């Protein structure tokens, strides 16, 4: 149930991750799945988020903050293979204009990766 969240939030910016979100949306018990800024992530099991300040964009599910769909999609290039295509399609709707804008700010290769992911998801 993201118990690690309560321990870590005193030290670093952290929210529950995308797997936790998917399980909670299905009404299942959630595994410990944490998301934090990529520079703070010291563990490969942590979902790395591309931008700081993600906790202010988080969404509450069962009283716990989870990474927003926008932050999850924006961070996919940092987490190859973390979520499979069917899991990605189950995430709540994201503001893709915001995601692409932030990917553009992060740089050309990052933007290219995001456009490829968007095309894969939409079948284009």
What does this structure look like?
With 124 residues, the chain is an alpha+beta fold. The chain contains six helices and five strands. The chain is 42% helix and 13% strand. β4 and β5 form a beta hairpin. α5 packs antiparallel against α6. The longest helix is centred in the last third of the chain and has 15 residues. The model has no long low-confidence stretch (mean pLDDT 85).
| Integer average pLDDT | 85
The radius of gyration computed from the alpha-carbon positions, rounded to a whole number of angstroms, is: 14 Å
The general outline is globular
**Content of β-strand:** 5-15%
Oligomer kind: single chain
The helix/strand order is: HEHEEEEHHHH
Number of helices: 6
| Record field, number of beta strands | 5
Relative helix content? 40-55%
Sheet with the most strands?
3 strands, mixed
- Sheet/helix structural class: alpha+beta
Order of strands in the sheet with the most strands?
A: 1-2-3
Low-confidence stretches: none
Distance between the termini: 37 Å
Brief overview, please?
This protein has 124 residues and is an alpha+beta fold.
Write the layout of secondary structure elements.
Layout: H1 3-8, E1 14-16, H2 18-25, E2 34-37, E3 47-49, E4 59-61, E5 64-66, H3 69-74, H4 85-90, H5 96-106, H6 108-122
Parallel strand pairs: 2-3
Antiparallel strand pairs: 1-2, 4-5
